[in-house]
Write a structure and sequence with these properties.
The chain is built from nine helices and 13 strands. By secondary structure, it is α/β, with parallel strands linked by helices. It has two domains: about 140 residues, D-Maltodextrin-Binding Protein, domain 2; about 90 residues, D-Maltodextrin-Binding Protein, domain 2. A hairpin with a 6-residue loop joins strand 2 and strand 3. It is elongated.
Length: about 250
């Protein structure tokens, strides 16, 4: 433990302890809601995020509150207006201009899902005139892909299910997303393939509104500790998070 421990006497941590909760958020497809119980289940980044939120709350001796939002943009808006304390985002330059980040916790790659019979075998095969690549707008995978596409047509969708539906219905030739998401969707589309190569790597950190240096230091110290003592690695293993690894 360093100076930014739960007993630290800074105003930001005192305010969180006074509120008796630390409020974080996930966006689709980081979570799902059980229709029968209403319980939130984390997927991929969300799986790690929920456990890290609990660990932070435990250290601060407060309640963890996790809210689900539909899109990255809606979570960013909630973070910027102070509706939530933290969120789990890929560390991208555009986001770094708006919020502060802890060191990266883990990373995974981005690739393509293609339907049965697709001539696309590698990432480079898709960037041709007339090829339609569907993305989840404002997701980190979309931010990474757009500068790389020179000839193909970008088709935007707001939600993961919408993007998958566009591919499934033949209105796109390729679905670009994190590998773990695509592996799940490939099970719903017989004959489809997730490509072996990748068009980028997402390094995920915890985002905090600018102007909260004490909270940033406290959360960053906990992230560093969780990587060093094997907590992040154990969570990845326990969650069977395919393609995830501890960030360097």
């Amino acid at each position: 433990m360093n100076e930014y421990q739960a007993g630290s006497n800074n105003d930001e941590l005192r305010d969180i302890k006074k509120a008796a909760k630390i409020h974080s958020a996930l966006f689709l497809p980081q979570y799902s809601i059980d229709a029968a119980t209403g319980e939130m289940h984390g997927h991929g980044t969300g799986y790690v995020g929920i456990l890290m939120a609990r660990l932070l709350a435990e250290r601060l001796k407060v309640k963890p509150e996790v809210t689900g939002y539909p899109t990255p943009s809606s979570v960013m808006d909630a973070l910027l207006c102070g509706e939530i304390d933290l969120a789990f985002f890929g560390i991208e330059p555009g986001r770094q201009a708006k919020v502060d980040f802890t060191p990266p916790m883990f990373q995974f790659d981005y690739t393509y899902l293609v339907p049965s019979g697709s001539p696309v075998k590698r990432i480079a095969d898709a960037d041709k005139p007339g090829t339609r690549i569907v993305i989840m707008d404002n997701h980190a995978s979309a931010l990474a892909l757009k500068p790389q596409v020179k000839q193909a047509i970008i088709v935007s969708a707001e939600l993961p299910e919408e993007a998958f539906g566009i591919l499934r219905d033949g209105k796109a030739d390729v679905f670009a997303s994190p590998r773990d998401v695509l592996l799940d969707y490939s099970m719903e589309l017989p004959g489809s393939r997730v490509l072996d190569d990748a068009f980028g790597v997402n390094r995920v950190g915890i985002a905090i509104r600018k102007g909260r240096p004490d909270l940033l230091a406290f959360v960053s110290a906990l992230v560093t500790e969780a990587k060093a003592n094997g907590t992040i690695a154990r969570v990845i293993d326990e969650g069977s998070l395919r393609g995830f690894s501890v960030a360097a």
